[in-house]
Amino acid sequence: MIIKNPKGITPKIHEKAFVAPNATIIGDVEIGEGSNIWFGAVIRGDFAPIRIGKNTSIQDNVTIHCEPGTVPAIIGDEVIAGHNCMIHGPCKIGNRITIGINATVLPHTEIGDGSVVGANAVVTEKTIIEPGTLAVGGGVSAKPKKKYTEKQSSRMSLGAQLYAQNGKKFKKIFEKEKI
User: Could you tell me which of 99, 122, 130, 178 has the fewest CB atoms within 10 Å of its CB?
Assistant: First the structure.
């Protein structure tokens, strides 16, 4: 399924790229020659552009998305984004990189050419991984660290409101195009 976003931008997919029939590619997305987008992947260029280079493999159930109104998520050539990865831009992922199964790349990060991000690792916001680096996580487990004030908690609803508005836009698109 490939659809336009509310701004009317249609993804640009090279004719020699493979996109699985149940992958979802939305909006300002460009996918290079020989790249492959596997089953269940979601690439949402509705808030900011997403650029994927040549011969890059976006495997099953990977999600790629950006913060609203930001610079693009750029994914280079010959990158493997393993099954169930989350790549949340803006970010810059260089060339010849492997991002392990279920890894997470958070906004404002850079991963240098020839690097490997281990399975289940989290590349935290504003991290720069130098070229040729193996970056692994020590496991991620949720532990309470602090309590939010009422004001801080109420600000968290802004994200939900943004997604509610975006959902309304997409509902209209689907109803109009009967996808």
Answer: 178
